[in-house]
Amino acid sequence: MPFNKIRIVNGIRVLVTLFCGGILGLAFIVAVDQISNPMLPEFAFINPNSVLSALVVLVLINLAAFQTINAEKKKYQSNGALLCAPCQEKVKEENYQAHLAEEAGKAKWTAELKTMTDGDAALRSIVQDWRLANGGAEPGHTVVAELVGAMNLEKAGNFESAAKIYEGHKLWALAGKVREKARVQTVKHVTVDMNQLIEQIGTRGLAVPYRCQNCGAGITIDKNSSVSGLKFCSYCGSAYNIEDMSKIVQEALG
What we know:
The protein has 254 residues and is mostly helical. It folds into three domains: 2-83; 102-170, no CATH class; 190-253, no CATH class. 71% of the residues lie in helices and 5% in strands. It contains eight helices and four strands; from the N terminus they run H-H-E-E-H-H-H-H-H-E-E-H. It has helices spanning 2-36, 48-75, 85-118, 121-133, 141-155, 159-168, 172-204, 242-253; strands spanning 77-78, 81-82, 208-211, 218-221. Strands 1-2 form a two-stranded antiparallel ribbon. Helix 1 runs antiparallel to helix 2, helix 5 (141-155) runs antiparallel to helix 6 and helix 7 (172-204) runs parallel beside helix 8. The protein is elongated, with a radius of gyration of 40 Å.
């Protein structure tokens, strides 16, 4: 019973405090008397070691007692008041039932997650990566919902938003792969755009000058140019910036 335990602990604390306090008080009195009258006899058990021991025991017993009492109060307190014995049993039962409900909820979610991942290989791979990145923990409802959302953003072409969600869950490699998809898609788009621009240059009979950003060598983009021939500088071998090149051609075309 918590009430009895608290009373016993507090009783022991009081007894030890009185005993140690008595030794300290007696030592103080003896010390004062010795100062005023050095001829008074000394008490053998009143010495620096006994005084220090009494002080240490006094401090430790009070700390231990207060910690024990506070721990007991926290177990059986409601709105600052200690609960009676029947109420304590009720609280224990409620806590037990809450624990059972929590465990049942975890088991249900584990089964649901297994069903989801068994039917979706991509999600299964991402969940496995998440477990590895988070110390083997099991992802909850919110985490899985966010990962599924990132997958949908990736399908919709919103690569940067998907990558940020993956980063938030420590899936650095996956975030990098998604951003690489965005870069590849951009390059493909620019390549298609350059083909169309070269056709327009040929139709108008234009010749657009362009300089390598690495070595400064100049080339001319005209009707005879091809996208494959505009990938690398023939002088230094560095890759041209196709996106920058397309902007220059667009400006020339007006």
